[in-house]
Amino acid sequence: MRKVGKVRKWLAFALAAGLMVSAMSVFAGGGYNYTTISPDSNSSSGCFNPEDVNYSKGGVYYFGCYYGMYPPSDVDEGECWVDMTDGTYGPTYTLSGGQWVNECSGEVYNGRFGPSSSSSSKSDDGPQPLGDLEIIQIHQRAEAEAVQHAASEEGFADVGDMYMAAEKNMSAGEFYNNAVISTPGIENAITVGQGGNLVVDGQVTNMSATISKVTNRAYVDSVRTQQEGRVLNVVDVSYPAVNATINFYMPGVTGEENIVALQYNAGTWVNIEVAEVRADHVTLNMKGNGVVAFIAQ
């Protein structure tokens, strides 16, 4: 895959920043509470924007930071809070020594009337150096933002999807379309996808076959030694039945080719009955899950 290494690097950042959070509530004074928004709790566009929230009744905790009108209580040192009193991003504070300190000015938050620069925790010489915990927290927030940006840049709706796709060595296009576009060892592979409607016992069902990438090129090499022709693609197929007629979407197939299919079974390649070959589609009568090779003779 072109960018799997890059994706895994961002995932390492995500885990270090503690992005995989669970449901929780943190309270501020007067019954004002904060509720966690997890990475997969997003809008129809696939992204969550803190500026879209009405903060009059409560705030949100998202990607390692609290967003709301009042600072949260009973939270750990080094936590981050963004003042959303005006509905937009206000000053960002970090809890240090039991006080909410403005990350930019070093001033201490002193209630709704604004921060106070006369706190005993600050000298007249200006902002004090950041502590180790504050520095770590700033780095974590920067990494979290970088991970979210990477997910969007790669075409993923959220970080969770990027993580699952990386585990399968799949791009965003492959992950969301249940397809394999490229396979190690095959130049100019023909895309193999599956859109559901498996036929089982003569009846069209709502079942789908899951198409996964084959990363071990030994499968490609071995099928080439057994079957003459051009290897179009080799994919792993799984579905919730035994015998099923499965229509594979294969853009670029004209319908004029002589296509054979083989399935890897206990160390050997076994022929699969090809039910139909037409433009952009190859239909197989399969008898079980496994690695399948499509070859044009």
Estimated structural class: alpha+beta
Could you give the count of β-strands? 20
Query: What is the number of helices?
Result: 5
Order of helices and strands: HEEEEEEEEEHHHEEEEEHEEEEEE
Can you tell me the residue ranges where pLDDT is under 50 for at least 5 consecutive residues? Answer: 7-26, 41-46, 113-124
Give the oligomeric state.
single chain
Overall pLDDT confidence: 82
Strand content: 25-35%
Q: What sort of overall outline do the alpha carbons produce when their principal axes are compared?
A: elongated
Sequence of strands across the biggest β-sheet: 10-11-16-19-18-17-20-15-14
Largest sheet geometry: 9 strands, antiparallel
Structure description:
- This protein is an alpha+beta fold and 297 residues long.
- The protein has five helices and 20 strands.
- A hairpin with a 5-residue loop joins strand 8 (108-109) and strand 9.
- It is elongated and about 75 Å long.
- The two termini are 27 Å apart.
